[in-house]
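User: quick one - fold this with S-adenosylmethionine bound?
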Amino acid sequence: MPKPSSFWDERFAADEYVYGVQPNDFVRDAAVTWLSSPQAVLDLGCGEGRNAVHLAQQGHTVTAVDYSAEGLHKTRRLAEREGVSVDTIQADVREWAPDRTWDAIVVTFLHLPPSEQAQLYDLLQRVLRPGGLLIAEWFRPEQRTEGYTSGGPPDVEMMVTADELREHFDAEGIERIEIAEPMLDEGMHKGRGATVRFVWYSPEQPSD
Ligand SMILES: C[S@@+](CC[C@H](N)C(=O)[O-])C[C@H]1O[C@@H](n2cnc3c(N)ncnc32)[C@H](O)[C@@H]1O
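Assistant: Sure. Structure tokens for the protein plus S-adenosylmethionine:
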């Protein structure tokens, strides 16, 4: 059986940036609103680096993580082309256990099987510093059940719901949770999409 990242390595093997080189719209706008001063930002499941490089251009110190070597290679190439620095780490988010935290985390369209999604939510909360900020966008189930054709995994079970986010993240930290229907124009994601957009602050005092 091929390693799971081989799917992404194959997708990213061509020179073309399959999700484009412009940042995701929500990340770009949310960063203006919520990341106004330079921060240490982690881009988890960074793909080919479009968000990581954009955030570095805005003055943030960016760490970009993905398990696809090809994606990280293109992230470094894009960073070099744009004259910014992005630290890249090859890791599987289901196992990664860094020994530091970040001020903010960005996640876009990192979809895992349902049995593994909780591991991602736990990781996000472990690696955010107290008071740190999460900015995320995922496709929601309607992307499949209502016939949107703008991308995302074929399996409806891999989509993310607002209820699931409310279940896993402390309600007090929820700054924004939006059932969105953006017009996507980001390479393979093209056309109207069904997404959930999430902005969450980690508690200032970590719970025991
Ligand atoms: C749809 S792409 C999105 C890439 C990027 N966030 C963007 O929006 O352009 C999903 C990314 O998640 C990465 N990914 C999926 N499962 C992963 C895992 N278990 N560990 C690390 N990266 C993973 C893939 O390699 C791929 O780069």
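One thing worth noting: Strands lie at 40-44, 61-66, 86-90, 102-108, 128-139, 174-180, 183-186, 189-192, 195-201.
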